Structures are given as C-alpha cells and as structure tokens.
Hints:
Elements lengths: L4 H16 E2 L2 E2 L9 H17 L13 H6 L9 H15 L15 E3 L8 H4 L4 H21 L6 H28 E7 L3 H11 L5 H11 L1 H7 L2 H4 L4 H4 L4 E7 L30 H11 L5 H5 L5 H25 L13 E2 L6 E2 H18 L3 H17 L20 E5 L9 E5 L2 H15 L3 H20 L14 H4 L12 H19 L6 H21 L10 H18 L5 H22 L6
Antiparallel strand pairs: 1-2, 3-9, 4-5, 6-7, 8-9
Helix pairs in contact: 1-2, 1-21, 2-6, 2-21, 4-7, 6-7, 6-13, 7-15, 8-9, 9-10, 13-15, 13-16, 15-16, 16-17, 16-18, 17-18, 17-19, 18-19, 18-21, 22-23, 22-24, 23-24
Amino acid sequence: MQIRPRLQLLDVWQAVAGHSFRGGEWSWGEWGARSSVADAERLLCLMYPATEIPEFGLDNPDTTQEDVEKALKEVGDATEIPGNLVRVLNDFMGKHHGGDLGPTFAGGYYFQPEDPEQELTKEQREFGVVDSFSMSVTLCLATLGFLRVYRTRTTRPETQKLIQGLWDTTSQRLTSAMVSLLRSFTVNVFDVESSQGQAMCRLLGRGRLSDRVVLQRFQDRFKALRAVIGESLILGVDVEEQLRNENRLFECGWAWSLVKDAPEVETTDDIGGQPEGVADAVPYLYFTVVALDGIQDLFSDRTLTLALLNPEQQRLAEALRLRWEISQQYWSGIARFGDDRWPLEDIPWRTTGQQLESEYFSLCVASILVHDLVRRRATDDDLARTVDVMERLAERGRITSRATDDDPAVRLHNPGVSLPLLGSDRQGPAMQWAMTDFSAQLLKRTIQLCSLSRNLASRDRLLQLAEDILGHLWRRRVSEGEGSGLWDNVHAAYPSSEERTGPLSWSITERVTECMVAASQLYLQPPIRSADLTALARALLSEATHLLGKEQMKPAPPTKSQEGEELKSVEADLRRARLVLDNQPGTSCALAYGVLRRLDILARARGTGSGV
C-alpha cells in the first residue's frame, strides 16, 4: 500500500469527526472522560496534524484548505472549526482537573487487574501514568501553538475570553505533566549476583562471556554516564552512594507512574498538589519510549519558534532534556553492547527487571536506538543493522509473513503484551498495562529511520517495509458501525484471532496519525543524492552546453520563429538542470537528456547532425 499521507490523514480526520462530532457538538461517548490517556489520544488525532503540517492548519480560517474543510464538515465550516476545537479542549482540561489538586492524569480503564476475577479500586483507576504525562506534553504544546495563532484571527470578546482561559489551564497542565515526568524518572542499581544482575549478564554476554568480563566492559562503556547520573542533586534520585560501587550494574529510565518516595519538584508555577508516588523505582522499556517521544516535542523547532514555554517551563525542560539524553545513551549502548553481534539483534529481547520476553521489547529498544541515531547521525553500518532488525520484527510479528493456525505471534496484536505495574498493589489488586500497538509503533520507527537514512538501498528497503506495515494496519480499520474508519479490528488481519470488544483503540488511531505526520515530513526532505547520477548529470550537461554553443554559432533564427522559441526553451531547461544538479541529480539528468534530444532534432533539421 503506497504511503499517501495527505489522503490517508484526511480519511482518519473524516472518521474521527464523524465519530466524535454529532451535529457540530462534541460527544465523548460511553468511554469518554474515563481515561485521560484515551481522551488525549483522541484529541491529538486532530491537533497533532493541524499543528505539525502547515497545509492541515485549522487556526486561521482564511487559509483552511478545501479538502481539509470537507473532511471536517461534521465539526463545522472553516470559521466554526477553530472555535469548536477551543470548546472541546476546554472541556478536556476541565474533565481532567482535580480542583485545588491541579491537573489529573488518570490511566482509568487502560489499567487492568492481573487477576481478571478482581476489581480495581477507584483510587487505582485514578493513578497517574507516564503515558498521560507524555501525551499531555504533546497535546498541550499543540494546543498552545494553535491558540497562539487563532487568538490573532478572532476579535469576538467571548471567544477571546475562552482562549485566555484555555491558555491558562493548558499551561498549568503542561507544567504539571513536566513535573510528573521528572518524578517518574528512576535509576535502579543492583548487584551482579542478584536475579536482575544475572539476567543483565546473560543479555550482554550472550552466554559467551563471564560475569566478570561483562561487568568490566559495562563499567568501561558507561563510566562517563555513571558519573553524570551520580550527581543526585541534578537528577533528584538518591543513587550517588550506590553508583560509587563499580561492582554493581544499573538501569535508568521511566517507571510506570510517580516513583514512591520521589521528592517534590520545586516550581514557581501553580500546579496544585504533587501526589505521592506509588510505583516501584524500576524503569520500564515501554514507558521510557513513551516519555522520550513526548519530551522531544519540548525541543522542537516549532516550540522554540512560537516561544510556547514560559521561563519556569524552560527550566523544567532542561532538566528533562538531561534525563532524555541519559536514557538514550544508556539504552543505545545496551542495544549495541559488544564488538560483534548486538544484543538487540538477538530477538526477542528479555527484560532484566520483570524477566519478560517479547518482540515488543525488542521494538522498544529499537525505538530508543532510533532516537539516538537521529540525535548523533548514525553510521551506514548502524542503519543497515537496524533495518535488518525492523524487517525481522515485521516478519516475526506476522505482518510481512503468513500467520499459522493458533500462531502465538498473533498475541502481539490481540490481546497484546501485558506489563505488571510494580507497586500498584499498595492500594488494591495488582495491576497490569496491555500494549497492543506493535504494528503502529513499528511503522512509526520505520518511517523515522527512513527519514534518517541517506543510503539508497536501506531507504528503499525501509519504504517497502513501511508500505507493507501500513497495508496491514489499513486492513485493521473498523469497517462498519461505531467508529467506522478507525482502529482496531485485529480480526480483519488475523481471522483466527478473537474479535475485539470494548472501546475503540485511540492509542493505535493516534499512533497511525503520528505515522502519517512523520511520512509527510519525510516527503518534504530532498531526495537522496546519488554520486553516480551526479557524475552522469555533469557529463550530460557538459555535452549539452557544448552542443548548444555550437548551435548558437549558426545564423540567428528570425525573432519569434519556431526555431528561435525552441532555442530559448532549450536554454531555460539547461539553466534549470544546472540549478537542481546538487540536490536532484536524477531530475538534472532527465532535463539534460531532453536538451540533447531537442538539439539533435535541430541539428538534423539543418543537416548538420552526426552521421548526416
């Protein structure tokens, strides 16, 4: 399936608008307001493309494009759409606010009991979760950018009042989400002899190296990082004393929620209370990936250009940037540990903390590696090996290969991979978190790698893989009834899988939307420059320039004659071919071939061509 981000995004927008807007009025439906994560994901399906792709902008009614307005006809016309979005966003900020307690980030129905016979308590459903913190950062930045423009396009006093109120609540939620991300970051230090240490040694040594050798190589590789993390006053995690012992290993990243006993973060912004943490101080691969995705939006060109962060938020953003860089460097180093075969290439990945094994965890590590490759401009070898991993994950996940009867790989998609949430049993039954977005996450990382690759062969492989994954995901759209055109109907792609019941999957719908935004940015990049084509284009242009000069030695044709107009056109094409040579050598070649053909026609007409 060819990736056509504009058409596919319009399809998704039309489906979201048809499902959520009824006669111009927003409807949360049965499952609305029961999970801040799901509600934020639903709104991001609209707000993220609208603020990341200029052609999809909704903040200026005068520039709203016709096909965009048509896709959102259920929301209103071009002048009504931004006002309606302001009201919906205000509603979201109000529903997920605890009064004097400040913004809330409840996981809600996304939390599930480990024992299906038990029922979670109301307090457990209201636990904040890293997914909500991260999604809130992205949604709040998109909202602030939208308001920054829209407030200059309307003069109605009641609308301006709504905009100012939304700006204040959105800014408060953004600060609160950033503080929560800071308090969810953790470093876990453990002995080599512990079960976690032994699991780490098996992962990094792959059965060929002794624990002592693994420990020595680990210390050598992460010596500088250990020193940075040890500055506990900077990170707010008290591990300095433990990290001084070089006979211990460590992991870093994000827990599933606020870490138990995490200190409050000092801030001058009024964010209400800072709840006590409940999560064990154990980093999770999945929640680390989610946090990294949200945090990077704080440093985007758009955030900086529109000056969306106030001074206090800028200070918090720098603290998050440090954790962002530490986590990327750590997990990228773990993924590529050793001198020959990477641990990442040994699929499936086995976590050291919970001792869980799945292709999904391999994808999580690969996702962090992609973040790091973008940051440090990867080598061709790193890219080629990561492409191999992506292709193998697609095959093992039965996306590019056929699923057999009762294929265990189908469980990656339905019911998904479950994570036990350590510490959740302090206020009720033990909870878990299900991850069903393997295909959407794989597509997102594939497109990101494609944007990064400057190697023709790797890029072609990645594009083909992305098209295959998108085709798989497109088959999983709901075809009829409630939520038609949205996700997720796993049964359509895997007939042996149980048909899915319950609410729509806003997580997959939102991630597909992110993929289309990434694809649109991919196509805005200049094409890969081929050295072979550049050399050929230069040779063709040299010959064309010489033959044009020879043609111009002949008597000048009459003004406005067909021959004169043809020579002017040839000159224009030749200038264009030189202009695009560096960035589009293939286009330059095509123009040069055309010039040569037309010059040859002129020469033959005069009887001066070669062989005449």
